[in-house]
Amino acid sequence: ELPPSEFMQVADSTWLVLSVVSNGREPPGCQATGVTKIARSVIAPLAEHHVSVLMLSTYQTDFILVREGDLPVVIHTLAGEFDIYKEEGGECVPVTCDDVSNGFLKPKPPASPTLHPVQSPQTRFCVLTVAPDTLPAIATMLIDVLFYSHSPPWDAAPGSQDLDSITFFSFSLIEGYISIVMDAETQKRFPSDLLLTSSTGELWRMVRIGGQPLGFDECGIVAQIAEPLAAADISAYYISTFNFDHALVPEEGIAEVIQLLQQRQESGR
């Protein structure tokens, strides 16, 4: 319903949302959360089959967006490891490979993925949620932060922002559950009794992926970050955007994360 505008870009593809629900079969001692929890079982296999994904971690869970045209490949790739269901009329209906056999594409020959540069600003971030019934109490503040306080100049070049103080604010409302990522300074502007975080109140640091807008045709970008973090059992929230990808890792682990990703860069050259 949005009117056409010279200021609005729309990607060509239509995307479908996958949510991965645990059935309790993770190996003992598997502590990592976020994208690293599904790196080996979902992210890596899809990258190997040349499926481009957009990743959206929230306070409650993680979602993977895949292009509608890639759904047959996705189901054939994951069916051996997962029980797959589709939503029809509010009900979950089992999906089999036979349901999507028409149009299934065999994987292309493996290609070396592009290793994109990673940068880590000094900004510290919080991952929060808000009870839906308290949302009106912070609506004015949300509107100010989203549209006014940190709005970059219209003529600013992509990627021109000072990475020492990157502006990043993410708000998602999915099936009634609210998830917010904001920097620690912005959090101080909100009523502390309405913002809910984990009991540890941990702060997160960001790794931004991409020296220029990434586009949607390339595969393996999420895997480039998720696989080494999963191997080191490091939790990470991952948020793909129109231009860049962003991984949030615990503040105390940022030095190890940067070292791991630099090693990955060097070994891929």
TrEMBL record:
Statement: the UniProt record of this protein carries the keyword RNA-binding: no
A biological process term (GO) from this entry: negative regulation of TORC1 signaling
InterPro entries (UniProt xref): ACT-like_dom_sf (IPR045865), CASTOR1_ACT-like (IPR049479), CASTOR_ACT_dom (IPR027795), CASTOR_fam (IPR026249), CASTOR_mTORC1 (IPR051719)
Record SUPFAM superfamilies: ACT-like (SSF55021)
This protein's GO CC annotations: cytosol
Domain Cytosolic arginine sensor for mTORC1 subunit 1/2 ACT-like residues, every copy: 116-199
Major localization listed first in the record, in broad terms: cytoplasm
Compartment(s): Cytoplasm, Cytosol
GO molecular function: arginine binding; identical protein binding
Keywords: Cytoplasm, Phosphoprotein, Ubl conjugation
KW Repeat (keyword) present: no
All copies of domain CASTOR ACT, residue ranges: 11-78, 201-262
Family classification: Belongs to the GATS family.
Subunit structure: Forms homodimers and heterodimers with CASTOR2. Interacts with the GATOR2 complex which is composed of MIOS, SEC13, SEH1L, WDR24 and WDR59; the interaction is negatively regulated by arginine. Interacts with TM4SF5; the interaction is positively regulated by leucine and is negatively regulated by arginine.
Function, in words: Functions as an intracellular arginine sensor within the amino acid-sensing branch of the TORC1 signaling pathway. As a homodimer or a heterodimer with CASTOR2, binds and inhibits the GATOR subcomplex GATOR2 and thereby mTORC1. Binding of arginine to CASTOR1 allosterically disrupts the interaction of CASTOR1-containing dimers with GATOR2 which can in turn activate mTORC1 and the TORC1 signaling pathway.
Protein name: Cytosolic arginine sensor for mTORC1 subunit 1
